[in-house]
């Protein structure tokens, strides 16, 4: 248990049996009436975002979420298998838990696996990942006033929008949170 004064970004709360991460908070002291804390919460499992207001000083239930560095090994056809590099323990994680991150994970890459009471909650990737383009059509110089984009399929199977000058076989940097092209790797 913690009070609303202890709230900070990244803390996980257990509200009505569901886990919510605090993404932003603001302590408000109006001129009239009691103080309160205005928060924005994101559901850990579904990703739903809600605004919630707590009265100042009340107790909220926190959840213990363990984040650990894991190595992605392979997809066994059903689940994704991760290994703890310290203990060599392997953990199978369902595709629903991995979510969109699967399109940006290469075998032997390091990810962060969040667990609550031993149950995997979500997989967190670094802010940018380097992947090779498996296939993209050649860029056509046409009549356009601004730089254009084209779809490119990555080695993991995900598709991202890249500038026209990017060719198949090039290594690029991608933001795995939204699939945005960040630049070429030299």
From TrEMBL:
Any one Gene Ontology biological process term? peptide biosynthetic process
Matching entries from Pfam families are given as:
EFP, EFP_N, Elong-fact-P_C
Superkingdom of this entry's organism? Bacteria
Give the pathway annotation: Protein biosynthesis; polypeptide chain elongation
Q: Which GO terms describe its cellular component?
A: cytosol
Signal sequence span is none
Start and end residues of each Elongation factor P C-terminal domain: 129-184
Q: Which InterPro entries match?
A: Elong-fact-P_C, NA-bd_OB-fold, Rib_uL2_dom2, Transl_elong_fac_P/YeiP, Transl_elong_KOW-like, Transl_elong_P/YeiP_cen, Transl_elong_P/YeiP_CS, Transl_elongation_fac_P
GO terms of molecular function: translation elongation factor activity
Keyword annotations for this protein, in alphabetical order, are:
Cytoplasm, Elongation factor, Protein biosynthesis
Kindly list any coiled-coil regions of this protein.
Answer: none
Q: Which family does it belong to?
A: Belongs to the elongation factor P family.
State what protein this is by name: Elongation factor P
Q: Which organism is it from?
A: Actinopolyspora righensis
């Amino acid at each position: 248990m913690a009070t609303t004064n202890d709230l900070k970004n990244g803390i996980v709360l257990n509200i009505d049996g569901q886990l919510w991460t605090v993404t932003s908070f603001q302590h408000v002291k109006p001129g009239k009436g009691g103080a309160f804390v205005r928060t924005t919460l994101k559901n850990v499992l579904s990703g739903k975002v809600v605004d919630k207001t707590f009265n100042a000083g009340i107790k909220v239930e926190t959840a213990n979420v363990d984040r650990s560095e894991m190595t992605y090994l392979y997809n066994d056809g059903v689940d994704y298998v991760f290994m703890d590099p310290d203990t060599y323990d392997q953990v199978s994680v369902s595709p629903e838990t991995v979510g969109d991150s699967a399109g940006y994970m290469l075998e032997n890459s390091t990810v962060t696996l969040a667990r609550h009471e031993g149950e995997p909650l979500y997989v967190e990737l670094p802010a940018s990942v380097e992947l090779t383009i498996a296939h993209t059509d050649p860029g056509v110089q046409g009549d356009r006033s601004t730089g254009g984009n084209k779809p490119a399929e990555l080695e993991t199977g995900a598709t991202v929008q890249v500038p026209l000058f990017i060719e198949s076989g090039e290594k690029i940097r991608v933001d795995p949170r939204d699939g945005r092209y960040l630049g070429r790797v030299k």
